[in-house]
Fold each of these.
Amino acid sequence: MSIEEPSGRAERDPLLLRVSHADRDRMVEILRDAAADGRLDIDELEERVERALTARTFADLAPLTEDLPVAAPAPPAVPVPASTDGEVERWQVHGEKLLREGAWTVPRVVEINVHGGSARLDYTLARLPEGGQSTLRVSTHGGSVRLTVPPGIAVDLSGISTYGGRVRDNASRHAVPGVAVTHVITVTGSTHGGSVRVEASDAK
């Protein structure tokens, strides 16, 4: 996801940063542990280890753990410039959990970067901005973002690009007939070995 700095220069994508020998070694250790747990067979282990040892960027490492319950080594945080328009909020999640629930105030635009952690945004009782729409710009690197929405709130996931990640909308199948949509959350950005999921607040 590209964020414009006040000078007009686009911020670098952290996944395009070069990995170190320590990053490659850590990836190999993760893969060997997965094989020891029975999650990878010998051929899979050898193939992934070779890819890890020849990786140049964090984007090369991310897909190696997309089907494993552990995140690939994350790139270091890249400084994000402060918002200048007063409407955009930027959240950073690195190996931790972020939770927004209850009567929290939803910004008109949120930019969230998740590296090996998770973020859960529950819109059930949230205070929504006027105008009937808000924007969520996501960037996941081995992390996950989950949105919980009540009837009347729709989520548009068509603007997400996936690179070894998963995007799922489980809320649409729980839509309540006859309930008009009063707010649309437009989700854009990208997933790199991470996931974005939408669920209904009244799902059984």
Amino acid sequence: MKLQRVRMLGTASAVAAAVALPVMAAAPASATQGACANYVRSHGYLVGPKVNAACSHGALFSGVIKVPNAACILGLTRAGVNKGEVVQSACMRA
């Protein structure tokens, strides 16, 4: 009986860790990627894999200023986001 409880506890712990770890690790990155994609969407563009991939390139912070990532700008432009201010602002949110 005691061995069965230990096994159940071990299994439950492993499942909890398997579920919680990816969520904790992905939360900051997906939040900023989501902000970028939502900004693009709010300006009338369809958001699909290309926009999401572009928004996955986070803004760069030098310690003094934050600048949009060139890979994000290029990716959004290639995805068909034409307005420069939308691209710049979206990539600042990434």
